[in-house]
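Q: For a teaching session next week I want to show students how multiple molecules come together into a single three-dimensional assembly. I've collected the sequence lines for a complex. Could you give me the predicted structure tokens for the whole thing so I can convert them for display?
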Amino acid sequence: MPNIKTVSGDFRVPDARFAIVAGRFNSFIVDSLVSGAIDALTRHGVSEDQIELINVPGAFEIPLVAQRAAESERFDGIIAVGAVIRGGTPHFDFVAGECVKGLSRVALDQGLPVGFGVLTVDTIEQAIERAGTKAGNKGAEAALTVLEMVSLLRVLEG
Ligand SMILES: Nc1c(NC[C@H](O)[C@H](O)[C@H](O)CO)[nH]c(=O)[nH]c1=O
Ligand SMILES: CC(=O)[C@@H](O)COP(=O)(O)O
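A: Of course. Below is the structure for the complete assembly, covering every listed component.
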């Protein structure tokens, strides 16, 4: 688009620091999301000492800890990963709903990129598919999104 000022981020964010906040519930799935997130970051030049992994009990607890991490001003971006799998009661809706609402609030209140790599799925099969098999890895996707957003905010800030 000639003559249109265009502002974009890329995936190069030297010196940026990242927190991965992981809900341990359904850890056999979440471990793959964590690995996917770390892999995506390190493939894009982020070194391991720029990444901190913070484990919390479940998806419901992710927003509070993400908020504390943001308030610490030690991180440029936060990647939330977890796996909420529907059971037989309405519990799923509360856990998943509060998790996404809380994370969205953290991003806006703290002005910090927050990646939503929390699976909210009906079945274990759907979770497996999104944790590094046929439907990709949502932890990796969230990490890439945060990389781009950190870069974009740096461009916007000049
Ligand atoms: N059922 C799932 C949960 N439930 C646990 C909650 O996240 C929370 O830890 C508990 O209610 C205590 O406050 N968490 C998940 O991450 N995934 C689930 O499928
Ligand atoms: C997402 C959940 O909270 C879920 O695992 C709970 O299962 P249930 O609704 O059968 O208690």
